[in-house]
Structure formats: C-alpha cells, structure tokens
Amino acid sequence: MPDITFLLIVGPVIFFGSVVQGGVGLGLGLIAAPVVAFVEPSLMPGALLTATAILPVLSVATEWRHIDWRTLAWALPARLPGSVAGAWLVAVLDPTALGAAVGLMVLLAVAATLTALRIEITPVSLLTAGAASGLTGTATSIGGPPLALVLQHSAAPMVRGTLGAFFVVGASLSLAVLAAGGQLTGEQVGTGLALVPFVVAGFAASRPLRRKLENARFRAALLGVVSLSGLALVLRYLL
Question: What are the alphabetically sorted keywords of the record (predicted)?
Fold first, then answer.
C-alpha cells in the first residue's frame, strides 16, 4: 500500500487525467506518467498500467454501441508483437531515451497531419498503429497516440469507444508481457490498485466534457492531447 504522501500527490493527477481521457479517449498516461516517474520511478510503468486498466472498461460500458469492430480486428492482433518489443526495449534500453524517441516521432506525425497529410483508415495503417501502440504503451505507458492519429477524423463517440475497447485488451497484454518478463512487481500492482478510486471519480466527472467535444472541437482536443504526449516524453528525457 503506498503511503499517504504519494496518494496526495499522484491521486489528484490521476483524477485530472481520467477526466481528460473520459472526454477525449486518451490522456491519462500523458498526464500521470511524468508525475509518477518523478515521485517514484520504480513504480513505472506497471503501477500506472494497473491503475489505468479500469478506465477503458468504463469507456466501453458507456459507448459500446459506437465501437468500430473492423478497426479493432486489424489493430488488436498487432498489439501483441508490439507489446513484446516494448518489454524487450524496457529491459535493454534507457527508458527515458526510448520515450524521447517515441515522443519525437509522435510530434512529427502530428505536424504531418496538420499539413496536407491525411492518414487513411486501412488495414496497413491499423496494423502499424496497433503495433506502435503496443510498443509505446508497454515501454512508456503512453500508447494512445498512434491509433488516435489514424482515427482523428472519425466521430467522437466512435473514437472514444474504439480506443476504450483497444485499451482494455492492450493494457491487459502490456501487463501480462511485463509480468512474464519479471518487470511487474507486487508493489507496482498494489500501488496501481490504490489509485483506481481516483480513476473512477475522474471518469464520472468527465461526462460534461464528453457532451461538449464533438466534430472539429473533438479533433482539436485529440491532437492537442497527442501533441502533449509527445512533448512530455521528450521533456522527460531532456530534464
């Protein structure tokens, strides 16, 4: 069980991140990962993955009617090899340097989509996004940007529901791969479970935000969160 100081610092951050992800479809990892890594680096990424595993379940329960199952059929199978690669990279590379490389790629991808490039939703793009999400989610606990970039022009409920379903399976795979590799500790799991009430409260508070974010507003918010994800990973390395 984490001490009260840790909960007082990290709990509100988890709550705020859950509000953002409840409205946009991703963002909890972006907001909480730097704080958890700063307060107690040994808890990453397992504690945050454990805590955030409940949030996509809530998203699916809320917007299951809007899930695009074709997208999941292509993206999910690629998540497993990506997760294995991510766990291997965690074992052999400096996690902050790896995160910086991922963050830079995310920022470049966002810049490209803001110009003339439009990523079409095809089997190839979904397979690529699924594998990339598995790698970045397992290695850095921030796995949403690759698939979010592919889905950015879709309707808000579809994006939230589909990302939620993707994260339900994805978080489970990442945790299983980390556990199999001996990189998931009991302390990480216990800390993550202690943070779950903050996740549930944040999702409940996100309902007004979900109503406001539609169409152009939603895409702008989505790209903003994705950009901040990339920037956070780069800054974590530089600082």
Answer: Cell membrane, Membrane, Transmembrane, Transmembrane helix, Transport
